From TrEMBL:
Keyword annotations of the record: Acyltransferase, Transferase
Residues annotated as domain Chalcone/stilbene synthase N-terminal: 19-240
One GO term of the biological process aspect: pollen wall assembly
Family membership noted in the UniProt record: Belongs to the thiolase-like superfamily. Chalcone/stilbene synthases family.
Species, as recorded: Panicum hallii var. hallii
Transmembrane segments: none
Active site, renumbered: C176 (acyl-thioester intermediate)
Keyword set includes Acyltransferase: yes
GO molecular function, one term: acyltransferase activity, transferring groups other than amino-acyl groups
Residue ranges occupied by any Chalcone/stilbene synthase C-terminal domain in the UniProt entry: 249-389
Name of the protein in question: Chalcone synthase
Length: 396
């Protein structure tokens, strides 16, 4: 084939393939910055049973209150943060009276509260990144706290002053593995679009699942006892330029469904909000399956054991979940200290929790060499990302 000037040129397919290769990044995606945020209302776990039965006007359910107190005592949580306050709950009796539908009112509140909390975390990440917000090329947002069109991605882009052409992806209802899923998507975007800078943002507000106790549904006490509000944001990009100081390389990402687990961690969006139903078997199923998930994720990298030589960023879904991962992998107890710290200080914030754990690992400078981020979500889904700490001396 010749050009109009008579010079030989490559075939169109070869030219397109060449261009496609040229559009890819040279190196792996990296974590360039991390931001986190929580609402101001803080409730100590030791006060939670009194607080919860008072605000739901359920003091007469003395057995359930005693049960909640037992769960709180065993939770290894010290305190949690919530967007909702006692005043807000008082002004919305439908949030605590199961006879009335309340989804509309919950959706109306989270429609602005989720983008605002997400923006606080994202602004922190962008400030640390050190480049203008207008240089973010892609946005991946994940939440189960409300669903709107346009969604949190649209509002967040406006709140942060992102460019109007920022390419947005919205992920809904990924439960507690939502940030892990968003980071996996961001890694693919960053590695396949040279120069891309992807903002990942994830927030959850427990207002979407707050409800009064009920004798016939004692299991709902688990979500009231463990879950807290938070937002996490990460700037992801490959081939860092001089101002950028990566914390972690995102080496590989995998996802697995634990067999026979579809009823283990279910979420149902109801007229009275989101109902989360955790099975009692969840911790044991995690313990039995976690090593197989980790082996599948790491064997392509020729890593097939020596789990204590890696650092770990495990989703703090509950004390029993962390105990199960520790036992299933035979980890030295200090290996999950960053996850236990996040559980202790914030509770289970669902998806954003792993972003807090990554932040904590780099703060404690506990990360070294290779490590694994583990997200645990509905079904049971296990999201695994192999990371390599860059040893950045960034001031955070
Ligand atoms: C701190 C716990 C709750 C209790 O500690 P323990 O050492 O097991 O203590 P006990 O065995 O004595 O349990 C205390 C009480 O809690 C009860 N309990 C113990 N698990 C249960 C139980 N799943 N049911 C309902 N009663 C129970 C247990 O029966 C007992 O009741 P009682 O005998 O009356 O004192 C512990 O079991 C624990 O951390 N469990 C894991 C909690 C859990 O499943 N976390 C969720 C992980 S998945 C995730 O993060 C979110 C995914 C998600 C998915 C979809 C969405 O929409 C949103 C999110």
């Amino acid at each position: 084939m010749t050009s109009l000037l008579g010079n030989p040129i490559a075939s169109p397919v070869a030219a397109i393939n060449g261009t496609r290769r040229g559009r890819r990044a040279d190196g792996p995606a990296t974590v360039l910055a991390i931001g986190t945020a929580n609402p101001p209302n803080c409730v100590k776990q030791e006060d939670y049973a009194d607080y919860y039965f008072r605000v739901t006007k359920s003091e007469h359910l003395v057995n359930l209150k005693a049960k909640l107190r037992r769960i709180c005592e065993k939770s290894a949580i010290k305190k949690r943060y919530f967007h909702h306050t006692e005043e807000l709950l008082d002004s919305h009796p439908e949030f605590t009276d199961r006879r009335f539908p309340s989804l509309d009112a919950r959706q109306d509140i989270v429609a602005t509260a989720v983008p605002e909390l997400t923006a606080a975390a994202a602004a922190e990440a962008i400030a640390e990144w050190g480049r203008p917000a207008t240089e973010i090329t892609h946005l991946v947002v994940s939440t189960y706290s409300g669903a709107h069109m346009p969604g949190t991605d649209f509002h967040l882009a406006s709140l942060l002053g992102l460019r109007p052409t920022v390419r947005r992806t919205m992920l809904y209802m990924n439960g507690c593995s939502s940030a892990s899923a968003a980071l996996r998507v961001a890694k693919d975007i960053a590695e396949n679009n040279r120069g891309a800078r992807v903002l990942v943002a994830c927030a959850e507000l427990t207002l979407i699942l707050f409800r009064a106790p009920h004798e016939a549904q004692a299991d709902t006490l688990i979500m009231q006892a463990l879950f807290g509000d938070g937002a996490g944001a990460v700037v992801v990009g490959a081939d860092p330029v001089s101002v950028e100081q990566p914390d972690f390389e995102m080496v590989s990402a995998s996802q697995a469904m634990i067999p026979e687990s579809k009823d283990m961690a279910k979420g149902r969006l109801r007229e009275d909000g989101l109902l989360f139903l955790p099975s009692r078997e969840m911790p044991s199923l995690v313990r039995e399956n976690i090593e197989r998930c980790v082996v599948n994720a790491l064997s392509p990298l020729d890593i097939s054991g020596g789990w204590n030589d890696l650092f770990w960023a495990v989703h703090p879904g509950g004390r029993a979940i962390l105990d199960s991962v520790e036992a299933g992998l035979g980890l030295d107890p200090r290996k999950l200290e960053a996850s236990r710290h996040v559980l202790r200080e914030y509770g289970n914030m669902s998806g954003p929790s792993v972003i807090f754990v990554l932040d904590e690992l780099r703060r404690q400078q506990e990360e070294n060499g290779m490590g694994v981020m583990v997200g645990i979500g509905p079904g049971i889904s296990v999201e695994t990302m192999v990371l390599r700490a860059t040893g950045s001396q960034k001031k955070i």
